[in-house]
Structure formats: structure tokens, C-alpha cells
Amino acid sequence: MRDFKEYTILDTVTPVAVTSSTDATPIVVTATSHGFATGDLVLIYGHTTNIAANGVFKITKVNNNSFSLQDRNTGANIAGSGAGAGSSGLVIPAPKIPLISDFRNAVLHVFTSGTATLTAKIAGSVGKTDGSCPNFGATVSISNPYDFVQVVDLEDGSAVDGDTGVVASGADVARQFEVNINALKYLTVFPISWSQGAITVKLLLTSNE
Question: How far is CA 72 from the centre of its chain?
């Protein structure tokens, strides 16, 4: 019997631009009209200088334009990198990160809306040395291993390089991709650049049994 699971990785997500962060404990991030509430999980990507602000965190709302960062597991306040105040990047509600090791096949359906201009990348990992999930969006390292993976466009069979990702350039897309999950343990998708529009990503996992 063929087993399968379906996930919504991102559900009509509109990223918010990050304008600054404090190099302090906890880091306080400024993202105008962010729309988040205390206890939400967010993913920040592309923040410069104060790179400790990149990754998946639990947040505490300070006001409508700012929030502080806490460890998603322990709740401990996140300290700045020590390099000074940060700038740029984007923040979204944290995407789902399915455990995929029990499956052999993965198909993604990527939709954009609002005349999107964005790039989304597919990230995979075999997990940390203890098997736990890495902090996607944070700096890649031996202790935080993940990479952007290649997918195949099911419309024409063309390969899309992991470092290129799925690009919408002012015209919305609805595309399906097969992911070579070949022994990966975790898989997710998130935008790495954005200026307008929203993105939805659905994932279907199947086995061959």
C-alpha cells in the first residue's frame, strides 16, 4: 500500500521587510506592521551585520513594528552577534519543516499571488549530529547543516539549481517540482528575496510500498 502525507509549508505568506535589529540581549527586530503576536514562530533571512538574528525563533511582541527573539525550544533570549546593529532581510511566519526520512518521493506545488516578485529556495538537511532539525535560515555551519537543493520542473523536466530557486518576476507562477530527497531528513521552503506578492507552497510525500 502506498503511503503518503500532505503538508502546507507556506500558506499565502506575504514577507515583511526587516529594517533593523539591536545588537543586544534579546535582539529586538524592527519590521514595520509585522502582524505577529507573542509566542509566534518566525523565520528571518538575509539580515546583515547582526547575523544572529537570522533563523527560526519564537518572538515576543514589543509593539506593532518590533519584536524580540527567543530560542524556539528553550525560550532563552537571543543575543546579538557583537558586530553592531543589523539591517535588511525579510521575516515570515516560520514554514513547516516536515520529517521526510520515511518517504522516497516529494512533489512541491508553488503558487504566488499579487503579481509576486520574489525568489524562494528549497532547503534540505540530514539533521544535526544528534539528529535534530537545524535552524533553517541561520548561518550554515558544521553544527547547523543544511543546503539549498535542486528540483525538477514537472512541466518540462528541466532542472532548477538549488542556488537559483523558484523565481517570480512580476508575474505569478503555479509550478510543480519533484525534489530528490535522497536520504534527506528534513525539507522546507522559504523566500530569500521579496519585494511584492504572496507565496503558498504545498508538499506531497509518498513511499513506493
Answer: 14
82-103 per-position pLDDT tens digit: 999 999 999 999 999 999 999 9
Question: What is the CATH code of the structural domain delimited by 4-13+95-206?
Answer: 2.60.120
Q: What is the mean pLDDT of residues 76-85?
A: 98
Task: Please give the pLDDT value at position 130.
Answer: 94
Look at phi and psi of residue 111 and say left if phi exceeds 0, alpha if psi is from -120 to 50, else beta: beta
So where are the chain's domains?
4-13+95-206, 19-88
Amino acid 182: pLDDT = 85
Please give the CATH superfamily to which domain 19-88 belongs.
Answer: Ubiquitin-activating enzyme E1, FCCH domain (2.40.30.180)
Grid coordinates given for 182:
535522497
Concatenated DSSP letters of 22-59 = -SSSS-EEE-TT----TT-EEEEES-BSSGGG-EEEEE
- For a pLDDT cut of 90, what percent of the chain falls above it? 94
Q: Are the C-beta atoms of 91 and 47 separated by less than 8 Å?
A: no
